[in-house]
Amino acid sequence: MKIAVFASGTGSNAEALMQAASQKQLGGEVALLVSDKPGAGALDKAERFGVPSIALAPKNFATKADYEAKVVSHLQEHGVEFVCLAGYMRLIGSTLLNAYEGRIVNIHPSLLPAFPGLDAVGQALEAGVSETGVTIHYVDAGMDTGPIIAQEKVLIEANDTREDVFRKIQEIEHNLYPQTVKQIMETKVVGGDGQNE
Ligand code: GRF
């Protein structure tokens, strides 16, 4: 299956997905990297893996629907059937959701439904919890609200700094995301409803 990875930032998760695909460990091919931030580190990483990329700044479009329609046309041009959000800092709108219904997943650095939205690690530290984690979920119109596919816990120890927690979370993310995508590809459970295709 052809997969697109969406990233706004450094793209370490995008890199983990491309790395797994290059070793035939993703159950699919990363056919396109999409960024909403021209200059994002993820774009360089795509180039290193020989993965085509596009960077479109939403501010250059009149509406979110126009922006997403352009993204969808690129996805279709590359034969993309499945989308992995990897640090894509934007809510998915109805244009993209309708085109890829049940075929968009996201990775979030908390045990959802706890700490959705921005700075999930900061939120966990602020709340003083002793564990947080990583969640992979299907994407719906809400902020980090779709059906959960996989979760893994991370312990927050007494002396952990913010950087310590980030490091532990990223270590887990870089394994859990490729593994989970591979499972989805193998079972072809793409609807988020547990039904095989
Ligand atoms: C990850 O922590 C992911 O869970 C969140 O955004 C971060 C992206 O990091 N959605 P990177 O750009 O993949 O390094």
UniProtKB/TrEMBL annotation:
Keyword Transferase: yes
Pathway participation: Purine metabolism; IMP biosynthesis via de novo pathway; N(2)-formyl-N(1)-(5-phospho-D-ribosyl)glycinamide from N(1)-(5-phospho-D-ribosyl)glycinamide (10-formyl THF route): step 1/1
Residues engaged in binding (6R)-10-formyltetrahydrofolate: 64, 89-92, 106
Its EC number(s): 2.1.2.2
Residue positions of the active site: 108
Signal peptide range: none
Site residues, Raises pKa of active site His: 144
Binding-site residues for N(1)-(5-phospho-beta-D-ribosyl)glycinamide, renumbered to this chain: 11-13
UniProt catalytic activity: N(1)-(5-phospho-beta-D-ribosyl)glycinamide + (6R)-10-formyltetrahydrofolate = N(2)-formyl-N(1)-(5-phospho-beta-D-ribosyl)glycinamide + (6S)-5,6,7,8-tetrahydrofolate + H(+)
Domain Formyl transferase N-terminal: 1-181
Pfam annotation, one family: Formyl_trans_N
Entry keywords, A to Z: Purine biosynthesis, Transferase
Molecular function per GO: phosphoribosylglycinamide formyltransferase activity
Statement: the UniProt record of this protein carries the keyword Cytoplasm: no
NCBIfam families: PurN
Entry function: Catalyzes the transfer of a formyl group from 10-formyltetrahydrofolate to 5-phospho-ribosyl-glycinamide (GAR), producing 5-phospho-ribosyl-N-formylglycinamide (FGAR) and tetrahydrofolate.
PANTHER family membership: PHOSPHORIBOSYLGLYCINAMIDE FORMYLTRANSFERASE
Family classification: Belongs to the GART family.
Protein name from the UniProt record: Phosphoribosylglycinamide formyltransferase
Originating species: Alkalicoccobacillus gibsonii
